[in-house]
UniProtKB/TrEMBL annotation:
Organism of derivation: Sphaerisporangium rufum
One Pfam short name: Acetyltransf_1
Molecular function via GO: N-acetyltransferase activity
GO cellular component, one term: cytoplasm
Name recorded for this polypeptide: N-acetylglutamate synthase
SUPFAM superfamilies linked: Acyl-CoA N-acyltransferases (Nat) (SSF55729)
Lineage top rank: taxon: Bacteria
Keyword Acyltransferase attributed: yes
The keyword Acyltransferase belongs to this UniProt entry's keyword annotation: yes
Length: 190
């Protein structure tokens, strides 16, 4: 069930918008900052970031990109939030929560019902209603279809043996989204 997270104070000039190709070098730096030793983010080739740019949202503060996050659709009703990162000097200001809110709004627009994430930041995602889960929340038929994906994140979602070293210590989490009501007002479950 989704939960409402406190907004960033109004005095901060923060905009969360869809990423552009010109943001990729900054996204590259944000990903690199957290994908080294004790990796918190999956390493990504720059070409993959360009290929996936339409999945990304960025947070811009006073004209500077200071955070990013992506929503990767896995199946008809299911997506994954991935690659959420905030500049080390701007952490703890509510930017990460704003990015996740934008990704969840996108998930609802797409008609998705469930959002998965794999993370060390359990409390952060729990604030949005994500709960830990075991296993892979898809039917055996969908599991078999997902095996056809070349995406490494999908391999992590499927808990395939060759990517298990990437995911050690991470928690698998799932959020059930409530669809927007017919009158257009999105009433969140609490
Ligand atoms: C699925 C995945 O992508 S997993 C990978 C997650 N990313 C990483 O691990 C990379 C390294 N970590 C980061 O980049 C960041 O710390 C993130 C993305 C996890 C969080 O981003 P931040 O901008 O620091 O988070 P944000 O400030 O929104 O919230 C963190 C805490 O700051 C505090 N905070 C301070 N000021 C504020 C504010 N104005 N509004 C909201 N929260 C605030 C809160 O205590 C909040 O804690 P809460 O979760 O209990 O609400």
């Amino acid at each position: 069930m989704e939960q409402v997270v406190s907004p960033v104070p109004a005095d901060r000039a923060l905009a969360v918008r869809r990423a552009r190709t010109t943001d990729v070098p900054t996204i590259r730096r944000l990903v690199d900052a957290y994908s080294g030793d004790g990796p918190r983010l999956l390493r990504k080739a720059t070409v993959t970031l360009y290929e996936d740019v339409q999945e990304f949202w960025v947070a811009e503060c006073d004209g500077q990109v200071v955070g990013c996050g992506a929503l990767h659709v896995l199946w008809e009703d299911l997506a994954e939030i991935r690659t959420v990162a905030v500049d080390a000097e701007r952490r703890g200001l509510g930017i990460g929560h704003r990015i996740v809110e934008a990704l969840l709004a996108t998930a609802r627009e797409l008609g998705l019902r469930r959002v998965f994430c794999l993370t060390f930041e359990v409390d952060f995602f729990a604030r949005h209603g994500f709960v830990p889960l075991n296993g892979t929340p898809v039917s055996p038929e969908v599991y078999a279809e997902l095996l056809a994906s070349y995406d490494e994140g999908v391999a992590e979602f499927l808990e395939l043996e060759h990517v298990k070293p990437n995911t050690l210590g991470n928690t698998r989490m799932l959020l059930h989204l409530r669809p927007p009501s017919d009158d257009g007002v999105d009433r969140r479950e609490r």
